[in-house]
Amino acid sequence: MATAPLLPVGPTLAWLAPIETLASFNRPTGAWSESDAAWVYRYLCNGCGSPATRKAVQGELLRLAYYMRKHNIPALAELNSDDAAGYRDWLAATKEPIEVSVRPVRRLVNGEFNAQWRPFRSTAPLAGNAIKTALRLISGCLAFLQDDPHCPVQGNPFRRVAKGVEQAKRKITDVDDDLHLYTKALSAQALDALFAYLASDQFRGSEQSRTAKQWLLMLFSQTAVRVETLVTLTTDNLFPDEAQPGKLRLRFRAKHNSRVDQPWSAELNQAFEAYCMAYGFDAKAQALLLWAGIKSLPQPAPVSASSVWAMLRTLGRQTEQWVAEGIGVPGTILNQWTPHDSRQLLALHPHTLRHTWCTHAVNIQQMDLLLAKQHMGHSSVTVTERYVWPVRSGAS
C-alpha cells in the first residue's frame, strides 16, 4: 500500500508552531504572508477565546491539511461543498493503517512538524460527536477568516455541513439511539438498582469503597453537577440558607459562568459526613473537597474527571450483572426491568445522571422548567428541554 502524503515542513505551514508562541505572533511578512497558512495562524492568535480552543482548532486544521494534501486540494479557497462532505465522510469511515498512530504521537517537536504523526489513533470510525466538533471548529475558523476583506478565502463549504451535522451524523453512522445512551436518562428502576446494589450483600468492595460510591452516586443524582465541576467543589461552596435557618445551599459557577444555587438536603449532608468519617476527613474543614476519590490520604487531593467516569462505568456494569443474576434484587426492580435498562447501566456515564435528574425532576416531580434550568446551570431553557426525555415504561 502506498504511503499517504504527509504535510510539508517549513514556513508555509506556520500555524503548526507551538501554541505558546501565539501570544507574541505578529502578522507574517514575506512570500507566505498572504497564504492560507498565514491567515489560519492569524485566526489562531486572535479568533479563539482560550488556549484550549486554539489547540483544538490547530489539531483539526492539521487533520484537514492532511486530507487536502492527500486529495490534491491546493488551498482553503479551493474547497467546495463536495470537499466538505468528502472530509466528513472520511472522518466517519474506517481508517487506513497508514493513517493511524500505534500510540499517541506529538504533532510538533521543537516547533517542527513530526513526520511520524498520523491524524487518527484507531482504525475505527471517528465518533459522531468528534465529527461534529471537528466540522464546527473548521467552520468557525473559515467564518473568522472571511471577516477580513483581504483574505483570499471566500465561501465556507463547512458551514452547511456543520449546521446539519446531526442529520449528517445519522446518515453516516446509521445511529441507533441505544448506542448513545449517555444522552438518555435512566429509568426509575435503573437508578434504584444502583443504590440497591451499593446497599446489598453482593456489593464487591470494602465498606470504605461502598460509602464512597454511595456518596458519589448521590452527588450526581441529586445535584446534577457536571463531572468537571464536581472534582473542584469544596466545602467553601456550601452556604447557610437565609430562608431556612440551619440548612445549607450549594453554590458554584457552571458553564458560561452561569450561577447555580441548589438546596443542600439533610440526606446529602449525612452522606457527606459518612464519607468523611470513612476516610478520616474533617467534614467541617475549610476548602475540603466534596469528592476526593476512594483513597485515604492525610490531605484530600483533587482527582481527575476520567477517574470518576471510570468508577461510574464499573459501578454500572457491576449493578447490571447483579440484576442479571437476580440474587437479592428487590422484586420492585426485577418486575419492571427491561433490556434497555441493562444497556443503560452497561454504558453508564456521569452525564447520564445529569439527564436523569432533569428528566425525573420535570416529568415526575413536576418541577418548573425555569427552575430546572437554574438548577442545571444552563444558559437557555431550550438547552434544558433537550435533557428532558420521555419516561420509559415497559420498553424493550
TrEMBL record:
Example GO molecular function: DNA binding
CDD domains xref list: DNA_BRE_C
Source species, domain of life: Bacteria
Entry keyword set: DNA integration, DNA recombination, DNA-binding
InterPro entries in alphabetical order: DNA_brk_join_enz, Integrase-like_cat_sf, Integrase_catalytic, Tyrosine_recombinase_XerCD
GO biological process: DNA integration; DNA recombination
Occurrences of domain Tyr recombinase (ranges): 181-396
Protein name: Site-specific recombinase XerD
Gene source species: Reinekea marinisedimentorum
Stated family: Belongs to the 'phage' integrase family.
Any Pfam family: Phage_integrase
Endpoints of the signal sequence: none
